[in-house]
Design brief:
By secondary structure, the chain is of the alpha/beta class. Helix content is about 50%, strand content about 15%.
């Protein structure tokens, strides 16, 4: 199976770019962050604080988290309920960052991610895809952008969805999440040694997508594989 790994901080454009790549290559897009968000939502609904490690891990063992593809789009299910919309809030985002630091949580979800990568050609995005989940991926990309640019993107995204948004609060949240993700003890956010870093601050979606597609073609053609 062919694999493209996209890592990077929140708001760098990973999900948007990964979807475009998957569409262009006819691969399956796997948003690993959505898995952690789904578990975070389960904890929130049960009134479990993110610092209650034992309870969070118990929730990870009991929650039925599933990915299904409807009309070509990934949908997240929690205990048979489609929660794809409910997991896209700042509260869930913050909880996902806090609960994903626990080894047992990551072990369970990483195993699911690796299983999917054995069944499909995938474009997978997250925080530790190139370093932990898919260490032998055909291509690894580390997407980044300034905190200000990422906060502006997230702010506009919320407004477009009709959600209330506070730019300064979003900027602070992103900076805090960057720190937490890169300083956690297990599977921290970091660039894999063989990853190509792309700063998307001044690049459009089409430009980034084309750059990565060309990198993938160069890699696979060089290895005698078909793109």
């Amino acid at each position: 199976m062919k694999q493209i790994a996209l890592d990077g901080p929140a708001g760098a454009g990973k999900s948007t770019i990964a979807r475009r790549l998957a569409q262009e290559l006819q691969f399956v897009y796997i948003d690993t962050g959505a898995m952690y968000r789904t578990l975070a939502l389960a904890c929130i609904r049960k009134g479990i604080s993110s610092d209650e490690e034992e309870k969070v891990c118990e929730a990870a063992r009991k929650a039925r988290i599933d990915i299904r593809y409807l009309d070509g789009m990934q949908h997240m299910f929690l205990d048979e309920e489609d929660v794809s919309a409910q997991i896209r809030t700042e509260e869930v985002s913050k909880a996902a960052s806090d609960t994903s630091k626990y080894p047992e949580v990551r072990e369970r979800l990483v195993a699911l991610q690796q299983e999917l990568a054995q069944r499909y050609n995938v474009v997978m995005d997250g925080r530790d895809i190139g370093t932990v989940v898919l260490p032998d991926a055909d291509l690894k990309i580390f997407l980044t952008a300034s905190v200000e640019v990422r906060a502006t993107r997230r702010y506009k995204e919320y407004l477009e969805k009709g959600m209330e948004a506070d730019y300064e609060a979003i900027k602070k949240e992103i900076a805090e999440r960057d720190y937490n993700d890169s300083h956690r003890a297990h599977s921290p956010l970091r660039k894999a040694e063989d990853a190509v870093e792309l700063d998307t601050s001044d690049l459009g979606i089409d430009e980034v997508t084309e750059k990565i597609l060309q990198l993938y073609r160069d890699r696979t053609e060089g290895n005698g594989q078909e793109a």
